[in-house]
Design a protein that fits this description.
heterotrimer; A alpha/beta (183); B alpha+beta (373); C mainly alpha (354); B: alpha+beta; 3-stranded antiparallel sheet; globular; C: 354 residues; mainly alpha
Chain lengths: 183, 373, 354
């Protein structure tokens, strides 16, 4: 499926109750020209879609809806994203986030799901281990380096670093005078 | 980590055995905590991090040319393909026009790397199941490829021949002839290797029906490369998302459906034949042209996110760069094939014996620096 | 009887002439023990070197050829190195058993070596239960392995020892039964008698089909008895470190190591004696020079030793349960049927005599 079709389909799963626009205006937020979308139109879906600066369709979802969106992405016949090939943690500066790259082995299309959490003290997200078994190790790695905890994870403990390590190294505010060489 | 032991008397109780980090069968510094009941494995828990060098954090500080040098310390057996991955990501982001010559040479060297990695894998596989002579035969042929690389790229293991924009130097004048001679030699050797291991009844008994991975599990665990192809999941990145000169060559994807250790073994042997066929299609027609496109001395990627997949000898390597327009990436994530392949070890080793675990690990073809980064 | 062979008789007579009978017997036995210890060490050294050269030949390399002419002194150098190594023992190891274990394997190897006929005169103890004695001795050898693994207080060693123990006990059956098959022709357990019978043709020819089957079973079971590849699960280097001798270093390790090679030699020697005519020359061509019997014996034994080395460097190893399946489900029934077949052939005088 093309990115537009995917966007229409996935967006329709979480319709925005505030959206009362006629259908033709829905095209505006998805065009590649840089339109300041936020002031003019209200997003028809509760999910945010973005394609600029990336070759795949990016979906931004709120943490509460993460698991249900993922489940639906995996199970829906038209999307059928059964291959999670990359799960990365990112420190966006103010927020911490996780980026999921999903591929379908049947339709061979790819989407990127992003979720942010503003809580830097005790960030928590839902695990997707029950959907893709590969997430077990990837989420442990994200916990190890960023500190993001995952609910319902079977074995959430540090993966690469030792148990006693303090701090989360891949965060941007991590300091270590002895080991880090900063240019 | 639990270290209490329960002595096995006459009741079958479980006890812990620690395999590694220094161990002849775990290819690299991997520590496995096995919970065993007699000879049957109940649980395998890998303990990683012994060779973690925080490559991803270093990449946030280094320039893109320096990052290329870090990549071939990850999966050092397919170092050329790793370099190619990062270079392709940078070039696609900058939308550079890469000359055809560069693409063809990159593909040839990538396939030679794949053959050399599989030669080493074959040697070590035989050694792990007990046929100690295969180690020498596999390394002997790997040496020939290493010699070709040394002449052209300057190094035997960590080549760094690819730079963003092309190749560091042009190929040596002897390169084409040496590769052709190697192909002629290797075509007579590979059937010999087949007869030594593949046709051996003891080898069949050690590997058939052992460590079975179903297709659904392979997809769910994110397996890629020969591990997934042996279970029937067609995932060759060279077919589905071709890069460099791979869309110009025709080759078959090696697929099997049984998903056991023997199928994974056969897939890799088949891949060696396919790689040789790819090289043969390209080696005679290397187009003339520049070997490098000049880029700025300081490469800055435009703002955005870039993902590039390549097929290393182990599976699908992904390079994910989030760039904010500065000279280093904001975040660089390597999706390493071994990481996902290791996560399914627990699933397929349970219920088997220790000997099966060793044979299974040999066919998963893990390179631990690739997992630990 | 030429001069050379009357040495043993001459020494025997001289000893008995100068001392009383009891003392002379004891001195004679001490001399024999010393000579055999010498044979044991030299044979051990030589076999290790041969193994390394043969392995190198299979692996397309050269092997040790620097120390001494063609590497002949290589094992001496290794033995000296092992002597100078620190004997590391583990703290919680059972000290008495830990120290005792290597001696079991050495003593059984030496005892077996003592009854093998090198040539007509060069036969230390020609007891009338020769074959039975040999099989019984190899059963004692397994105690050394089990003790070594258990007393090391090391899980890997214990697993290795258990595997080895179960493997040895199983394959002894096959060895015993395949040798029994040949005893049906010779009608005697005494080793010199077995060789006498072979003056009419080697037993493997006399017994034709069942003898060939018995020989093949014997070689498989013999390789398994000595824990060599493809049956070396007990010391599988790529699985469990070093198996039952993980915790041994220095001279004690050398004992286990040497004992394995001597066991291989003994298995080959028994096969030579029972199947291939021992020290008899083919077609009796050098019957007039009995001292050449040593040469023929060693030549035949070395061929079989080379065969065992060939196995080691070619085949992958069997998993433990496959090993036991092979013995109990395949070799044992085959062996039993073979005995019946051989008995039938002997009864009907269908053996090939020259």
């Amino acid at each position: 499926m093309t990115n537009e079709a995917l966007q229409a389909l996935i967006g329709s799963w979480y319709p925005n109750p505030e959206a009362t626009l006629p259908p033709e205006k829905k095209e505006a937020p998805t065009s590649d020209e840089a339109l300041p979308t936020e002031e003019i139109v209200v997003n028809p879906s509760l999910l945010e879609f973005n394609e600029e600066g990336s070759q795949f369709l990016n979906i931004k979802v709120a943490p509460e809806k993460l698991h249900s969106l993922m489940e639906r992405l995996k199970q829906d016949e038209q999307t059928k994203f059964d291959y999670l090939f990359c799960l990365s943690g990112v420190d966006w500066g103010a927020e911490l986030g996780v980026v999921y790259h999903l591929e379908s082995t049947i339709h061979r299309h790819i989407v990127v799901v992003k979720v942010h959490t503003a809580d830097r003290e005790d960030p928590t997200l839902d695990t997707v281990y029950d959907l893709w078994a590969t997430a077990e190790f990837h989420e442990r790695e994200v916990f190890d380096f960023f500190g993001i905890k995952f609910n319902n994870h079977p074995n959430l403990k540090r993966l690469f670093l030792t148990e006693e390590w303090e701090g989360f190294p891949l965060r941007k505010d991590y300091e270590d005078e002895i080991n880090m060489v900063i240019k | 980590m639990e270290t209490t032991t329960k002595e096995t008397n006459f009741k079958s109780e479980e006890y812990f055995i620690n395999m590694g980090p220094q161990h002849p069968a775990t290819h690299g510094v991997l520590r496995l905590l096995l919970t065993i009941d007699g000879e049957i494995i109940r649980k395998v828990e890998p303990d990683l991090g012994y060779i973690h060098r925080s490559i991803e954090k270093m990449c946030e500080r280094d320039s893109y040319q320096q990052i290329v040098h870090l990549t071939d310390r990850m999966d050092y057996l397919s170092s050329n393909i790793n370099n190619e991955a990062v270079c392709l990501t940078v070039e696609n982001a900058l939308q550079l026009e890469i000359p055809e010559r560069v693409k063809v040479i990159r593909t040839i060297i990538g396939e030679l790397t794949r053959i050399s990695s599989h030669c080493l894998w074959w040697g070590v596989m035989g050694m792990d199941v007990g046929a100690l002579t295969t180690y020498f035969y596999g390394f002997r042929d790997r040496e020939l490829i290493n010699d070709i690389f040394e002449e052209t790229c300057g190094a035997r293991l960590t080549m760094n021949y690819n730079v963003p924009g092309g190749l560091m130097f042009d190929i040596h004048p002897n390169f084409v002839q040496r590769v052709k001679d190697f192909l002629v030699h290797f075509k007579t050797k590979l059937p010999e290797y087949d007869r030594l291991l593949t046709g051996n009844v003891i080898f069949h008994k050690r590997t058939k029906g052992v460590g079975i991975l179903t297709k659904e599990d392979a997809i769910s665990f994110g397996a890629s490369g020969p591990v997934a192809r042996a279970s029937g999941y067609s995932c060759d990145v060279r077919k589905h998302h071709p890069y460099s000169a791979l869309d110009k060559v025709s080759f078959n994807e090696s697929l099997k459906t049984e998903g056991d250790t023997f199928a994974r073994y056969q897939v890799r042997i088949q891949e060696m034949w396919e790689s040789m066929s790819i090289i043969e299609q390209l080696i005679d027609n290397i187009p003339e042209g520049e070997h490098r496109v000049t880029t700025n001395a300081v490469i800055k990627l435009p703002k955005g996110e870039f993902y590039q997949k390549v097929e290393t000898a182990r599976g699908e390597l992904g390079v994910y760069i989030i760039s904010t327009g500065t000279k280093s990436p904001y975040r660089l994530k390597f999706r390493s094939p071994g990481f996902s392949n290791l996560s399914l070890l627990n699933h397929i080793a349970i219920g088997g014996k220790i000997g099966d675990l060793v044979a299974t690990m040999a066919t998963l073809d893990l390179v631990i620096p690739d997992i630990d980064r | 009887m030429t001069k050379a062979l009357s040495i043993t008789k001459g020494v025997h007579d001289w000893l008995f002439s100068i001392m009383s009978e009891n003392v002379a017997s004891i001195v004679e036995m001490v001399l024999i023990a010393l000579v055999y210890l010498g044979i044991f060490s030299v044979a051990g050294l030589f076999l290790v070197l041969i193994e390394r050269r043969v392995a190198a030949w299979f692996q397309l390399r050269i092997g040790p050829n620097r120390v001494g002419f063609q590497g002949l002194l290589q094992t001496m150098a290794d033995a000296l190195k092992l002597l100078s190594k620190e004997l590391t023992g583990t703290e919680k190891a059972d000290k008495f058993l830990y120290n005792l274990a290597p001696y079991f394997v050495i003593i059984t190897a030496l005892m077996a070596l003592a009854v093998i006929p090198f040539t007509q005169e060069f036969h230390a103890f020609d007891i009338n239960i020769g074959i039975f004695f040999l099989i019984a001795i190899s059963s004692i050898g397994v105690i050394g392995i089990l003790l070594g693994g258990w007393s090391s207080n090391n899980k890997f060693a214990l697993i290795g020892a258990m595997r080895s123990g179960v493997q040895t006990i199983s394959y002894e059956l096959s060895i015993g039964l395949s040798l029994l098959t040949m005893i049906l022709i010779t009608e005697s357990l005494q080793l010199s008698q077995i060789i006498e019978v072979q003056k009419n043709g080697w037993l493997i020819v006399q017994g034709h089909i069942p003898a060939i089957i018995a020989f093949m079973i014997y070689m498989i079971a013999g390789t398994a008895e000595t824990n060599r590849a493809p049956f070396d699960m007990a010391e599988a280097e790529s699985e469990l470190g070093a198996g039952f001798h993980t915790e041994y270093s220095g001279m004690k390790f050398a004992y286990f190591f040497l004992a394995e090679f001597i066991n291989m030699f003994i298995i080959a020697a028994i096969a030579t004696t029972v199947f291939f005519g021992g020290w008899l020359s083919p077609f009796g061509i050098t019957e007039a020079i009995p001292i050449l019997g040593v040469f023929w014996f060693l030549a035949k034994t070395m061929v079989l030793v080379f065969l065992m080395m060939w196995f080691r460097w070619t085949f992958p190893r069997l998993r433990v349960d496959q090993l036991l399946t092979l013995e109990w489900k395949y070799l044992l029934p085959l062996n039993l049927m073979n005995i019946v077949l051989m008995a039938f052939i002997v009864w009907q005088n269908l053996t090939i005599q020259f």
